[in-house]
Amino acid sequence: MSGGRTRILLVDVLPETAEDFEAAFGEGAAPGEEAELVRVTATSVLEHTEGTPGERPPAVAVVGRRVPAPVGLIHALRPHPADLAAVVVATSVTDSRLATLPILFPADLVRRVPDARADLLPRTVRELLESMSRRRAETAVRAAAQRQLVAGTVMSRQLGEHLLGEFLTQAPIGALMLDDDGAVLAWNRRASAVLELDDHGSLRRPLADLFPPDARAALRQHLGTAREHSSPGPDVVFERTRSDGTSQAMRIAPQKVTDSEGRERVLVLAEDVTDRLHAQRKLAERTGHALLSAEVAAAMTAPGPLAERLHRCVRATVDRLGADRVCLWTLTPSGRPEPAACADADRTTAAGLLHPGYTEEALVGRIADRQRPHLDLTPPGGPPPGSGRPQGSFAGYPLVSGGELIGVLTLNTRLALPGSTLSILENIADQVAVGIQRDRLLQRLRATTEALEHPLLPPRLPELPGFDLAARYHPFGSGLHIGGDFYDAFTAPDGRHVLALGDVCGKGPGAAAITGLVRHTLWAAAQHTTDPEHVLGLVNNALRRQNTPFCTLVYAVLEPPSDPAAPSGTSGTSGAVRVRVASAGHPAPLLRRADGGTELLDVRGPLLGVLDELHHPVTEVKLRPGETLVFYTDGFTEGAGAEDRREPEDLAALLAGHPLPAGDGRPADRVVAALLEDAHSWWGERLRDDLAVLALSHLG
């Protein structure tokens, strides 16, 4: 170290980082802020930190991002409060390993700075240097005081500012000597300046008398701890009021010392930390406000009933701001405010915050009518008797979003409300207003979605004697999504039963409109004839006429067993019924046999809504007792996208392995439930498509 300056060891730092330190601590730095900058490598830095910890020249090591093992290097440096601290640049690679540093070393010895905020390195180093300098000064003051007391210095000649020689008189930190009763015997110039001491009014005066009455007992107890321990007592901050009426925060650190005659004294180191305390409180306040804003935002965007989310908001506001009562009021259909959620710090005291003739309801009504904030910031002394003003501070903000009055936010407290608190309250009011309006909009969207989806599915499935017919539809999303899957089942005028399941390209209201067109065209066409070629041709023409996206569809006609037009033998001793199936680009249907074996039906045909002329082959299926015919949409095979798909054979294997108890009256219902359960289990959170399934079982 040259010239007695503190060293800053730049360990493998980047060139731009070294330039930042040169600007902050080099020759161009402000007077008194210069430091010796030493650029070293990780392998050579230990040569610059040799010696006994606590007795080495003071230094701060800046460990750059290129150091491969920063934790091990810091251990080897042996940080010490008196002479060595360290700052580490944390990268995405080393950050997890550096997480142990706060456990091993206090923040005034070792700190981490993210690589993205390397601009903070000079300021962080300066803070560590100031902390190190303060600790060294305190240690020197304590040692000098003890040495001179042991040397037999006469206290009576050193009263007032003449404390224990020239060194302590000029020390950069306040120092006071107390007698057995805690009275001030002597002090140095720094203590005289910060505590406003003088020889006439301060000598033999208890140190506790310089502080407010409510702090004196705690200060006496704090000073008493010094007589019980030989090591320095803990640092505690006490607040007082200066002669000019401004507040002051003093850090008081006592230590027991003994003079040449064996008498115990208390040496007190006093430091003015007013600015530091205010900065910490400001930071804590801003942090609290940021956390409160985040909690309110999280509550208003979380799922669940609105009343529960509003209660979370008021509870967080009471806890974070130290308020006595916070309420959120909403408007009834008639426009009258009513409390939707309230939280109290203490119900017994919150009830007395307002004057009996100054009701909160009246204030809320006034705020709602004027749509302007109402602030009544009562001074700490309280309102004049009989003034009719509230017993504490009151703040009320209208909840307005998009020009619409949503409600009112009110806060009651016995404390004065600073401007920063009023700002966060206004911010919270805006957040809650937007959240409530969003919730109401979602409710209206859900109602609209339900209204649009209602005509897309049959109100109920027809009852088919001798058969079990079951269907399920599960749209993707949280209730605001209108899917493109649909199914239908009805009995035509000729007595045949029509089953249909389809998937319209697209989502939302546009897909809903196409779905409605397909379903109603199917029904209208089947009123004339259920012939698949005729019905699918009319649906294709309707889609082409509207120039809509394509649609896939599987269409089936169940011939009743008693149909006289059915060929002989179709409902003979075997009990089989005939089902005619046509497919328009839809996944292959599944046929589960009575013995559990399941096969895919080879039913194919072109998409609807693409070609002007098309032909759909019709496949005839004989459905025997105990057998089940299953139609499904592509959500069961491509639920997470075409790149992550299952094959229809997988569904066939699932049904083949699914037991159906003998005599079960709802086999079709069990089949559709099994398919849906398997799809949700298979896709999980990856599911991004609608699911629709329709099954017909022949009971026999």
For the secondary structure, the number of strands is: 25
**Major pleated sheet:** 5 strands, parallel
Q: Note poorly predicted spans.
A: 154-159, 348-358, 563-573
Major sheet: order of its strands? 2-1-3-4-5
Structural class: alpha+beta
Mean pLDDT: 83
Estimated helix fraction:
25-40%
Name the descriptors.
single chain; 5-stranded antiparallel sheet; alpha+beta; elongated; 700 residues; 5-stranded parallel sheet
Task: Report on the architecture of this protein.
- With 700 residues, the chain is α+β, with helices and mostly antiparallel strands.
- The protein contains 17 helices and 25 strands.
- The strands form five sheets. It has a five-stranded parallel sheet with strand order 2-1-3-4-5, sandwiched between helices.
